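Hi support team,

I submitted a single chain yesterday and got back a structure, but I'm not sure I'm reading the token output correctly. Could someone confirm the output below corresponds to the sequence I sent? I've pasted both exactly as they appear in my results page.

Thanks,
R.
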Amino acid sequence: MPIDQERRSACLGPEGSVAHVTRVLSMISGRWKLPILFRLFAEPTMRTSRLLRDIPDLSQKVLTQHLRELERDGLVARRDFGRQPPHVEYGLTDAGASLMPVLLSMREFSRLHAADVPGAPD
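Hi R., thanks for writing in. Yes, this is the structure output for that exact sequence:
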């Protein structure tokens, strides 16, 4: 395979950079997924009732949906204590915790370049 073809494949192929970054972006896409991840980063374990209190305008239905998706993608773990009344807590998995420095770097990038983008938050 020619060198240019190898480079192109490393970026654009099915196992290339674009595919991997796109996969991560799809894992965190959704209006409430980032707020959920950041809250679980700030507090290691939380119950759904606390997440609902801490994230204004988030509905129980959407919270449950996003938590299931984050769990399916391996970013969040659900711990069921098997009690009555039900006691369930959520926390970041090792994979979720390892994603946080990337998200914090993105936040810093935004802060550093906010002046370059019209309408960006200060």
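A quick pointer for reading it: Helices lie at 3-12, 17-28, 33-42, 48-54, 60-72, 94-113. Let us know if anything else looks off.

Best,
Support desk
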